[in-house]
Design goal:
Blueprint: E1 3-8, E2 14-15, E3 25-29, E4 32-36, H1 40-46, H2 71-77, H3 82-99, E5 106-111, H4 118-134, E6 139-144, H5 171-187, E7 192-195, H6 202-205, E8 211-214, H7 222-230, E9 235-238, H8 246-255, E10 260-264, E11 270-275, E12 281-285, H9 295-307, E13 314-317, H10 330-342, E14 348-354, H11 382-401
Parallel strand pairs: 5-6, 5-14, 6-7, 7-8, 8-9, 9-12, 12-13, 13-14
Antiparallel strand pairs: 1-11, 2-3, 3-4, 10-11
Helix pairs in contact: 3-5, 4-5, 7-8, 10-11
Length: about 400
């Protein structure tokens, strides 16, 4: 995160983690951490005593708490090499130039709806890296590498939350897998983009992310706006699930400003974070009650941005409500967007596409999984992805000549 001040709330030899059972602690012995049991005084303070019969009032619905490794520990295990850091920095700088209208390429965030199989993700990344080189003059390609999934009710919440896809919730393992995958993809020279859903997990992976998204369900969240104000990467805010674009505009206005909020440091201690604000934010149109990828919708979103004294820089999500949740319509949506770009509309700065090795999707818990096929939203297959990337590249060339 981009910070101006951090005020740790703990110091000395005891490291208290908010993920641990209150009253538990790590004690530092010869620079190694050992997890200790709850302090007797904590147990005494939280027990119902015979003398007072005071009822317990805290953690009544918590069944278990497990230690969570500090971000610094994971970053030490899986460090960003100079080559990886260069990929991340170059992607951020390139996207910033696109947002500032200093680069006329389209930013294309393309990849699986969610990552559940790291090996298949690497296979996809290798294919996409070749397309990146092919279209480098016209497209700034970022691989969509989503580890966290917001659910309307319940369901698999993503690789970080449940890497085993079996309700084992090995979150430490999930964080380790996510960071390792981001490192390996960036090592190919292919930048990565992800949605920031949890407010603590960015401390474990954000240094390896070239572009970030705040989803339709969280764009209106104050916590996510505060987080975005401190992220070091450009951030796209989606319109609300109903189609309300104003909340995304408001989110940009908020994220551009400095904020103070509570979070966890790289060492895992609670702290007050002071941010400088993020000037590299933009709107993502993903549809709602109606689609909003057409020219009239671009005009409407542009008017809202102008009214808020923000630049008209718009990314279009070809999936979700814009495709009416039918993955096969993504190329149809993309063709409409390409037509607008070809005619010279410079307000469209990017496109999002949900794509995988294999078309469609599949359900968890129903036999063996097909490699490279989504377990969340249905995606287009690789062959159609290649065609869409060519369409987008051709549209940029046409825009230059318009």
């Amino acid at each position: 995160m981009g910070l101006t001040a951090v005020s740790p709330s703990t110091a000395g030899h005891f490291f208290v983690s908010p993920q641990l059972l209150p009253g538990c602690f790590f004690t530092l012995i010869n620079d190694s951490r050992e997890y200790c049991s709850p302090h007797p005084q904590f147990l005494a303070d939280n027990a119902m005593t015979e003398k007072t019969q005071s009822p317990a009032t805290d953690d009544l619905r918590i069944s278990e708490m497990k230690p969570l490794m500090p971000p610094r520990e994971l970053m030490g295990e899986i460090p960003a090499t100079p080559e990886v850091a260069e990929t991340v920095a170059a992607a951020r700088a390139g996207i910033k130039r696109v947002l500032d209208e200093e680069d006329d390429r389209l930013v294309v965030v393309v990849g699986p709806c969610s990552i559940h199989d790291p090996e298949a993700a690497i296979e996809y990344a290798k294919l996409l890296a070749a397309e990146q080189q092919k279209h480098a003059d016209n497209l700034l390609i970022v691989m969509r590498v989503y580890f966290e999934k917001p659910r309307t009710t319940v369901g698999w919440k993503g690789l970080i939350n449940d890497p085993g896809l079996d309700d084992s919730f090995e979150i430490n393992r999930g964080l380790r897998t996510a960071r390792g995958l981001l490192r390996d993809i960036n090592a190919m020279g292919l930048p990565t983009g992800t949605e920031f859903l949890d407010l603590i997990s960015p401390q474990y992976i954000a240094d390896l992310v070239g572009w970030g998204a705040i989803g339709a369900r969280t764009t209106e969240s104050q916590g996510h706006r505060e987080l975005s104000s401190g992220l070091s990467c450009p951030v796209g805010f989606k319109n609300g699930t109903s189609g309300n674009v104003q909340i995304a505009v408001d989110a940009i206005c908020s994220a551009q400003r400095p904020h103070h909020f509570l979070s966890v440091t790289k060492e895992g201690t609670s702290a007050i974070f002071a941010t400088t604000g993020n000037s590299d934010c933009h709107v993502i149109l993903r549809g709602g009650a109606h689609t909003n990828y057409d020219a009239a919708s671009i005009d409407s979103a542009s008017e809202l941005l102008t009214k808020a004294n923000l630049p008209s820089r718009i990314m279009i999500d070809t999936s979700h409500a814009n495709s009416r949740k039918k993955h096969t319509r993504q190329r149809y949506v993309c063709r409409d967007v390409c037509s607008q770009v070809s005619e010279g509309d410079s307000r469209i700065m990017g496109v999002m596409v949900e794509s995988n090795l294999v078309e469609g999707n599949q359900s968890l818990g129903k036999g063996d999984l097909v490699r490279g096929k989504s377990v969340t939203d249905a995606c287009i297959g690789w062959d159609e992805t290649v065609l869409i990337l060519q369409d987008l590249s051709d549209a940029v060339v046409a825009r230059r000549n318009a």
